[in-house]
């Protein structure tokens, strides 16, 4: 059903084709009837194998016929102990040959590939895995992107006990032959952390290898700056940092309402997580989903609001992961609450060796961009590297490059716009010292709203005069994190008020059309 | 080594409006001639074929002429002793066709006529100790089958019949460096399998486990200058991959990261102006499979006169609502 070009034919040709197809249909129906008849009578013999084979070579996707063959092969295998005339090796090699014939007809036939694995695992007395590895190598020379072949290789490698190191070397040789091969890079990403884990456990792979790998992909990507495979791999390597640990970022305990915010969405039902210092009561997500950045509970426990209770602790599997200091604040209406927050961190710091290397890499990308100023991939690479380095000097340039990217890759302009919005919000949040007053990101041409989990304590949030309504009927589910928000301004965005989720403290919703307060 | 973008060209000679009546006619007459070559040669996937045709017709606001009773009779004839459903009588049961049959029954509001407990037992029997699912008793493992299992159970309101935690762990073990998923741990990312894994997470309410920005970027990079989407880097665009990428982006709340106008143009160009139906690429022979994904894609893109499609189940949204099945979506950032 793929790649069959519709051709203009004459009446005469059509008639010939019709007759040809009729013949095929007849053969197919007769063949299937015979196969089903043999199967019903439980005649598990050579004739049955031949009937299936005749049908499968034309249509390798008839799974039931492969299954029938499996039943026959199992029968032969069972009888082989008592019947010396049965040559299992020969049966196996015939079966493997048939799958090869079928894979020529359809190299992506799931059932033919599975038949091969199944036969080797279940029928073959002594599978020849070395030969199978050669079959993979041969097939990958014919089509180096067939993911079935790569999967089969992985299966054979597992059975044959081939070392991860040797497979990593195989990908090196494939990449040296043709770096424009996404499959090889993918396969490489699997083996790299296995062969070169970081001795200290602080990083996903060994630091020197990381640098070496970035150098390898740099030379590949620079050879043809328009080739995407290498750049995808490079972006992965550039972002390859230890994941940020789960931390408590904000919390609030008030008279009738309590919430905590995390840097990642987590599930209140996850028994591995526990927070001390917050009394009893069951946590819920703030958005009704399985997991959320902000957990809420509405148990009332006055005793928690005191000068003594000043710290929350997050435990993961009983191990202390994160503390959050709380302080007592008195509101204008004399109500007291405990709140806490920490400065957000969006990315792990690079260690000094990597800073040096990333800096030199940035220089190379800049020189490449001097030659090809409108080339998408080096532009994106610049943005990624510069974002990691966080040099104050290149901050403005990142936004310039994103504008350029929108021009030279207009198909994905909305992606670049959202990336810009994300960076702007990160920059804004990084500058802040206080997370409880007013959060103002108006007039910034924002198209997306990232990191709302850091806005849970703000009393006032101003999103006005942005481009958030570029999406039709935009859902504003992200706003559910704004637990403390009393005044929310979404005006001049072309947003629908009805999409704003219920917020517990919201008093005034400014939507541009009217300034009337919406009492919730 | 030269980097040639594999793509197609779309010209003014290709159709640019929805040929609704032609598609209705194409789908309704597809099974008219039971001796037809195409029809016979696709017997091994008949149950899915019926699901493609029925769903496409429903999205086109048309009902099928074949009677509901006849359809249900066929399905019940395909249920085997263990509760699995085969593509056609005489063929072996498989989780792929079990899902298709449940989808058909749901479309026809006949799910209560199914032997639900038997089907649930069959699906349970396919779960492996590592949480993965086999397609049938012969043990092929694939994340497609993980999706089939939870989609099927969810439509039947029996999602807790399996070990969901382990099933989830297996799917997450197929996560790759690029944020995508493959068919087994270590397998390359592929739009079809990404759809299955994202769909799995959507059905089970676990979308928070995805790095939606990373995966969303990979998915929007599938769009080629023609507007069509491919399933992997350096591959040709295709209507079915367009659906898988589009549906995944929609579930992740990042549909706007692709150029929707040019994709609409690509899908419309894949219509067959003579026979009706959609093909994989402009100028190829149409089939019911690509016809469903063409229509469903256009529905997600907001084409007028089409019913709303649910991106997770690839079924009319009203059917999913009626059944109360979960299909989680992430809010747009
Ligand atoms: Zn296709």
TrEMBL record, chain A:
One of its GO terms (cellular component) is Rab-protein geranylgeranyltransferase complex. GO terms for biological process: prenylation. InterPro entries: LRR_dom_sf, Prenyl_trans_a. Pfam families: PPTA (PF01239). SUPFAM superfamilies: Protein prenylyltransferase. The keyword Chaperone does not apply. One of its GO terms (molecular function) is Rab geranylgeranyltransferase activity. It catalyses: geranylgeranyl diphosphate + L-cysteinyl-[protein] = S-geranylgeranyl-L-cysteinyl-[protein] + diphosphate. Its EC number is 2.5.1.60. Catalyzes the transfer of a geranyl-geranyl moiety from geranyl-geranyl pyrophosphate to cysteines occuring in specific C-terminal amino acid sequences. Belongs to the protein prenyltransferase subunit alpha family. This is Geranylgeranyl transferase type-2 subunit alpha. The lineage of its organism: Eukaryota, Metazoa, Ecdysozoa, Arthropoda, Hexapoda.
TrEMBL record, chain B:
One of its GO terms (molecular function) is Rab geranylgeranyltransferase activity. Gene3D superfamilies: 1.50.10.20. Its cofactor is Zn(2+). One of its GO terms (cellular component) is Rab-protein geranylgeranyltransferase complex. Residues 18-315 form the Prenyltransferase alpha-alpha toroid domain. It catalyses: geranylgeranyl diphosphate + L-cysteinyl-[protein] = S-geranylgeranyl-L-cysteinyl-[protein] + diphosphate. Its EC number is 2.5.1.60. Keywords: Metal-binding, Phosphoprotein, Prenyltransferase, Repeat, Transferase, Zinc. It is an enzyme of class 2 (transferase). Binds 1 zinc ion per subunit. The keyword RNA-binding does not apply. The keyword Repeat applies. Catalyzes the transfer of a geranylgeranyl moiety from geranylgeranyl diphosphate to both cysteines of Rab proteins with the C-terminal sequence -XXCC, -XCXC and -CCXX, such as RAB1A, RAB3A, RAB5A and RAB7A. Heterotrimer composed of RABGGTA, RABGGTB and CHM; within this trimer, RABGGTA and RABGGTB form the catalytic component B, while CHM (component A) mediates peptide substrate binding. The Rab GGTase dimer (RGGT) interacts with CHM (component A) prior to Rab protein binding; the association is stabilized by geranylgeranyl pyrophosphate (GGpp). The CHM:RGGT:Rab complex is destabilized by GGpp. Interaction of RABGGTB with prenylated PTP4A2 precludes its association with RABGGTA and inhibits enzyme activity. Interacts with CHODL. Belongs to the protein prenyltransferase subunit beta family. PANTHER family: GERANYLGERANYL TRANSFERASE TYPE BETA SUBUNIT (PTHR11774), GERANYLGERANYL TRANSFERASE TYPE-2 SUBUNIT BETA (PTHR11774:SF11). This is Geranylgeranyl transferase type-2 subunit beta. It comes from Bemisia tabaci (Sweetpotato whitefly).
């Amino acid at each position: 059903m793929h790649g069959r070009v519709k051709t203009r034919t004459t009446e005469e040709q059509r008639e010939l084709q019709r007759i040809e197809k009729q013949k095929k249909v007849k053969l197919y129906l007769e063949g299937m009837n015979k196969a089903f008849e043999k199967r019903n009578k439980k005649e598990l013999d050579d004739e049955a194998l031949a009937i299936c084979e005749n049908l499968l070579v034309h249509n390798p996707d008839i799974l039931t016929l492969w299954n029938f063959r499996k039943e026959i092969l199992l029968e032969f295998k069972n009888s082989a102990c008592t019947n010396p005339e049965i040559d299992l090796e020969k049966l196996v090699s015939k079966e493997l040959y048939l799958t090869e014939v079928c894979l020529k007809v359809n190299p992506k036939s799931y059932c033919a590939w599975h038949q091969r694995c199944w036969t080797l695992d279940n029928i073959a007395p002594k599978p020849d895995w070395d030969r199978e590895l050669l079959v993979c190598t041969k097939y990958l020379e014919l089509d180096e992107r067939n993911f079935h072949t790569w999967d089969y290789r992985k299966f054979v490698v597992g059975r044959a006990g081939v070392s991860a190191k040797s497979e990593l070397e195989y990908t090196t040789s494939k990449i040296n032959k043709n770096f424009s091969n996404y499959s090889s890079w993918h396969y490489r990403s699997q083996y790299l952390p296995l062969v070169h884990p970081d001795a200290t456990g602080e990083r996903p792979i060994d630091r020197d290898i990381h640098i070496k790998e970035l150098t390898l992909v740099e030379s590949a990507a620079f050879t043809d700056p328009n080739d995407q495979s290498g750049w995808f791999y490079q972006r992965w390597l550039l972002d390859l940092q230890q994941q940020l640990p789960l931390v408590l970022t904000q919390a609030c305990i008030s008279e009738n309402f309590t919430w905590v915010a995390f840097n990642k969405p987590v599930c209140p039902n996850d028994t591995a997580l526990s927070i001390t210092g917050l009394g009893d009561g069951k946590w819920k997500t703030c958005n009704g989903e399985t997991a959320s950045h902000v957990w809420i509970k509405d148990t009332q426990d006055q005793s928690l609001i005191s000068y003594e209770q000043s710290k929350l602790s997050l435990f993961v599997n009983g191990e202390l992961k994160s503390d959050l200091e709380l302080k007592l604040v008195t509101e204008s209406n004399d109500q007291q609450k405990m709140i806490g927050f920490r400065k957000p961190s969006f990315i792990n710091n690079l260690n000094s060796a990597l800073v040096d290397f990333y800096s030199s890499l940035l220089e190379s990308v800049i020189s490449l961009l001097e030659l090809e100023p409108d080339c998408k991939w080096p532009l994106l690479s610049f943005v990624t590297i510069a974002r990691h380095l966080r040099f104050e000097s290149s901050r403005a340039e990142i936004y310039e490059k994103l504008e350029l990217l929108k021009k030279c890759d207009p198909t994905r302009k909305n992606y670049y716009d959202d990336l810009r919005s994300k960076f702007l919000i990160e920059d804004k949040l990084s500058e802040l010292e206080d997370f409880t007053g007013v959060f103002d990101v108006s007039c910034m041409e924002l198209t997306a709203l990232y990191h709302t989990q850091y806005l849970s304590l703000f009393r006032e949030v101003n999103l006005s005069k942005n481009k958030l309504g570029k999406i039709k009927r935009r859902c504003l589910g992200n706003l559910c994190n704004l637990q403390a928000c009393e005044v929310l301004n979404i005006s001049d965005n072309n947003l629908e008020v009805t999409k704003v989720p219920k917020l517990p403290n919201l008093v005034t919703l400014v939507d541009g059309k009217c300034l009337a307060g919406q009492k919730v | 080594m030269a980097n040639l973008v594999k793509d197609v060209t779309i010209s003014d000679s290709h159709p640019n409006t929805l040929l609704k009546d032609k598609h209705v006619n194409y789908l309704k007459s597809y099974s008219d001639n039971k001796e037809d070559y195409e029809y016979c040669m696709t017997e091994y996937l008949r149950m899915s074929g019926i699901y493609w045709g029925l769903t496409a017709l429903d999205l086109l606001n048309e009902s099928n002429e074949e009677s509901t009773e006849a359809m249900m009779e066929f399905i019940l004839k395909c249920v085997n002793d263990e509760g699995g459903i085969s593509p056609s009588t005489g063929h072996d049961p498989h989780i792929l066709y079990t899902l298709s049959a449940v989808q058909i029954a749901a479309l026809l509001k006949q799910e209560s006529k199914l032997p639900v407990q038997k089907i649930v037992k069959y699906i349970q029997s396919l779960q492996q100790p590592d949480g993965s699912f086999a397609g049938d008793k012969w043990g092929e493992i694939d994340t497609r089958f993980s999706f089939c299992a939870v989609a099927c159970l969810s439509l039947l309101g029996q999602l807790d019949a399996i070990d969901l935690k382990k099933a989830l762990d297996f799917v997450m073990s197929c996560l790759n460096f690029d944020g995508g998923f493959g068919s087994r741990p270590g397998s390359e990312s592929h739009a079809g399998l990404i759809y299955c894994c994202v769909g799995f997470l959507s059905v089970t309410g676990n979308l928070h486990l995805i790095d939606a920005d990373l995966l969303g970027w990979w998915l929007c990079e599938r769009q080629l200058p023609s507007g069509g989407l491919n399933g992997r880097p350096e591959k040709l665009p295709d209507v079915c991959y367009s659906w898988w990428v589009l549906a995944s982006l929609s579930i992740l709340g990042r549909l706007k990261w692709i150029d929707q106008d040019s994709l609409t143009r690509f899908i419309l160009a894949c219509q067959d102006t003579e026979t009706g139906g959609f093909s994989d690429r402009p100028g190829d022979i149409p089939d019911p499979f690509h016809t469903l994904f063409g229509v469903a894609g256009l529905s997600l893109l907001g084409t007028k006169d089409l019913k709303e499609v649910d991106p997770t189940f690839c079924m009319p949204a009203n059917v999913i609502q009626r059944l109360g099945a979960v299909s989680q979506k992430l809010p747009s950032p």
